[in-house]
Amino acid sequence: MTVDREPSGAADQGERNIFAELSRGDADRDFERYLIELQNCMRCGQCRTNCPVFKGFGAETDVARGKIALLAHALSPEVKADRDMYAWLTMCVNCGRCRLECPSGTDTGYALLEGRLRLLQKVGMPAVKALMVRGVFGNEGLLNAGATALGLVQPLLFRPSEADPRHVRSLWRLPMLGQRVLLPRMRGQVKPGVVDPPGEVKGTVVVYPGCLIDVGYPELLSALITVYQALGYRVVVPRGLVCCGAPAAYAGDVATARRLAVANIAAILPHLRGTEAKLAFLCPSCAVAFNHDYPEYLFGQMSGGAEALAASGFAAADLELIAAQTVDATALAWELGIGEHLAGDDGPSVTYHDPCHLRRLMNVIDEPRAILRHLSGDQFVEAANPDSCCGFGGTFALEHADASATMLERRSRELAATETEVVATACPGCMAWLANGLDRIGSRQRAVHLIELMAEAVAGV
Ligand code: SF4
Ligand code: SF4
Fold this sequence. Notes:
three-stranded antiparallel β-sheet, binds iron/sulfur cluster, alpha/beta
């Protein structure tokens, strides 16, 4: 094996020795790639500036630099990997900020995912997390059955939220979260199908709803259909969709993530091949899984990526097609001219929360604000620190409940300070989490998805 870069920057002597020792071994190409990425970090600390977790808590293990140092340290045969290391690595909302801002070009996203994968192979996943990642998100049948069962018991264990009827409030503090929470009222699953607009069909959007919309917020898909009908677009929800695999991939369970990705690619490709259809998302975390994590990580750099792609039966060009057609549904609607169909500037007073993956990794920043200015004119109020994270981060909210709650409270107070009626966002996860945060601080603001405001305006509600 050859390692062509010298350990750089502030890597300490111990780490240099580890790298030197490993570079004399017979490691495979996957390991070599991983080693190079760990070495590439020059320990400058630039990633401390904007990491939402580090900004909140300030521990070196919160930030990419500390995590990479930890992973380099864990390579040593004298170091015994343990669950604490795995927990430190998962203290991350996977926002991608460190990757975008790293001056040495270290792909921190890859390094941290590969590190979790390798650590997981040594220490195993904690049982509760495994149940969530593999048993719930990793198994569509169980996810749907669980959602149906939860829908049946919700009237016994929860009571309707006074502020927002689509949510229910738990009667007791939930064990993992240590809080009473607002959850979406479970109302069954989204059905696959095709909805044509009245009149001429100008184009097609293939929609990937994602788990949260599927089981908890189906009205967001209805809102999308209303908006795209106004634009003259056919909406297709393919049969056979499953979880995007992000919870499994971010946990380091790459086998589960790949299995889910293959099912999704098989379901979606026939609708995109040979067409100009776009693949539209209402959840930017799912979108980033499809347009970045599948081609770059799961079937790319990560251990076994090339073999997994070959075994899937798909070509790299198939993944590229999916990535190229992936769009945020609200931004696409704006590009297609939905502004002409919106009612005017008499919408509610509203502020906006940027989902991390949408702002940072999909660069959708201006379109939601343009839509809100169009809907509400001067009643759109920008909140302080538009770059703040709500602390959701998928399983992060459950695994690091205290940290997540602290981040959520901070962001909720920033949004509440605008004193608007509504907090709009463009991610069902952020929306659900902000509904909780606003409720906990006693704010009467309603958290909604931007597509709902667009649909209400189009329908003249
Ligand atoms: S910014 Fe990049 S090079 Fe600097 S410490 Fe962070 S990961 Fe390493
Ligand atoms: S991905 Fe985001 S939360 Fe995770 S270490 Fe990087 S900046 Fe911090």
